[in-house]
Amino acid sequence: MELTLYKKQDAEYITSWIDSEEICYKWSADRLNKYPVTASDLNEMYDTISKITKFIPLTFNENGIPVGHLIIRYPEENNDKLVRFGFIILSPELRGKGNGKKMLNIAIDYVKNNLKAKKITLGVFAQNFNALNCYKAVGFKITDKIEKYSVAIGEWDCIEMEMDL
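The chain above was modelled as a monomer; its predicted structure follows.
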């Protein structure tokens, strides 16, 4: 699995992996607040985010084809020691085979080797058991912070996780 910077054409692959409303909201929370999500929707959102915060979208490829994706952003202005992972998704064909852990470990190494961060955070919905277990397996710890999100298909608890580097 090779890590590359996100390109706008990657959005076609990424949005094709979002094949249900539930997956859409588990992936994007209330950020897009619509299903289905198009490549144009994703690129427009990323253009907006990049104008307001330090933001690094990444794509994971196998044989030149996107198979995974996540973003890294800096949630606190003027604090390079803290980064946040978000919009984490893996191609459905690769799920359940250890590839999520592989992808996350590559992203963690990227942060360690290229950024000044000392901590990574992320949020995961309580009912997203596979993702929660994957994050735990690579070393993220559950914090005591839980946030409620209202999405189009219900109200969900979002568990905050973190990893010290």
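The CA atoms of residues 60 and 69 lie 6 Å apart.
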